[in-house]
Design brief:
With about 120 residues, the protein is mainly β. The protein has no helices and eleven strands. The strands form two sheets. Strands 2, 4, 5, 6, 9, 10 and 11 form a seven-stranded mixed sheet that branches.
């Protein structure tokens, strides 16, 4: 299973970016897809996740500004980021919990996409 993320970049505070992450490979289903981020000198933290049933979970710091969505047919998860702040600057990692063909679930990570918000 591979996760290909895209959409990062440089934006001014108050601006918007949309991240995308597409899963590919052979598997039975995707349980949870989402985004984590890691700022310089900090631990990786959850940003937002969404289950296959559409239940979303957000970090308090992004509630009301970020929106996660999934296109299950395209095996893709999106993160719409609005009202960006300098403290949102980080490398954003796509994550998926995938059920393999034999029934076991595994965690996969994308390569990371950099988001820089200037003040």
């Amino acid at each position: 299973v591979q996760l290909q993320a895209s959409g990062g970049g440089l934006v001014q505070a108050g601006g918007s970016l949309r991240l995308s992450c597409a899963a590919s490979g052979r598997f039975f289903s995707i349980n949870v897809m989402g985004w984590y981020r890691q700022a310089p000198g900090k631990q990786r933290e959850l940003v937002a996740t969404e289950t296959s049933g559409g239940s979303a979970n957000y970090a308090d710091s992004v509630k009301g500004r970020f929106t996660i969505s999934r296109d299950n047919a395209k095996k893709t998860v999106y993160l719409q980021m609005n009202s960006l702040k300098p403290e949102d600057t980080a490398i954003y990692y796509c994550h998926a919990n995938v059920r393999g063909l034999l029934g076991r679930a595994y965690d996969y990570w994308g390569q990371g996409t950099e988001v820089t918000v200037s003040s």
